[in-house]
From TrEMBL:
The protein's name in its UniProt record: DNA topology modulation protein FlaR
Gene3D superfamilies named among the record's database cross-references: P-loop containing nucleotide triphosphate hydrolases
Organism from which the protein derives: Kribbella hippodromi
Domain of life where this protein originates: Bacteria
Length: 188
């Protein structure tokens, strides 16, 4: 049973295109917890990547609060998020759905961009469509890799693996609302 009162630091992870941002926005709206999109935090101005040390330090600052939902699939720093988390939601969306979402996402501009970054429609299309072969190539290993990291660093967390749109809907329907009312969701 998910409880807004007891589960206040939630990691949402999964393959690119799994629906992490959409799920996290819905969960934040339902729970009232603040939302951190790692994709918006990762890039420095001009789409410059931070060093690993800079990225780890930035995440430590982002995760310092007592309550949050953080979404992203940065496996190399998943251990940091798991150290502070009390809940993990792994979206195990089928690879072909993830690839299809990446293709469609290429046609839509994001609502928000990382600070100091510009993004043309062509850059968006190219960036998203480059994900498709990566998703296909990693379709058998990415979920297993994340589950291994979670098993190693997140034994103390409550874990949910959501494998379908129905499981996601049931989870969100079963979430405690801001008033603290609890519902059973049956996914674990």
């Amino acid at each position: 049973m998910y409880s807004h009162e007891t589960q206040r630091r939630i990691v949402v992870t999964g393959m690119a295109g799994a629906g992490k941002s959409t799920f996290s926005r819905a969960l934040a709206a339902k729970s009232g917890l603040p939302l951190i999109h790692l994709d918006l935090q990762f890039w420095k101005p001009g789409w410059t990547e931070p060093s690993e040390a800079e990225w780890r330090e930035k995440q430590r600052g982002l995760l310092a609060g007592d309550a949050w939902i953080v979404d992203g699939n940065y496996a190399e720093t998943l251990d940091l998020r798991l150290e502070r988390a009390d809940t993990v939601v792994l979206l195990a969306t089928p690879w072909w759905r993830c690839a299809g979402r990446a293709m469609l996402r290429g046609f839509r501009m994001p609502d928000t961009l990382p600070e100091g970054s510009e993004y043309s429609r062509w850059q968006r299309l190219r960036a998203e469509w480059r994900l498709v072969p990566i998703i296909w190539r990693n379709r058998r290993t990415e979920l297993e890799r994340e589950q291994t990291i979670i098993a190693r660093h997140g034994q103390h967390t409550t874990q949910y693996v959501l494998k379908s749109k129905r499981a996601i809907r049931e989870f969100l329907d079963g979430c405690a609302d801001v008033a603290g009312e609890e519902h059973s969701h049956g996914s674990n």
